[in-house]
Amino acid sequence: MSALPNVKPYDPGDKAPKPEKTVTIVINGQQKTVGKQEELTFEEVVTLSGEVPSPGSVGVQYSIQYTRGHGSKPAGTLVEGQSVKVKDGMEFDVTPTNRS
Q: Which residue ranges does the record annotate as region Disordered (predicted)?
């Protein structure tokens, strides 16, 4: 039996890449779709929030509260340097603060 021209034999390793899984979270009332990773860092949440300090602002820090998280920690505060495990429907409130 001869092979058909331009037909490659089946190789189980030739699978199409799976589409990236995503979750929808809410940051300051705005829905954001992110890749379903284990965790989001404080810095990633601030960036996703779109909060940008005004030019010339000095000492702007951010406060992040979250709700609708995973069962072991459904609500809490995220501080600089921390990360939190995300899930679909999780809500974040990012607030700029001026602290000296």
A: 1-20
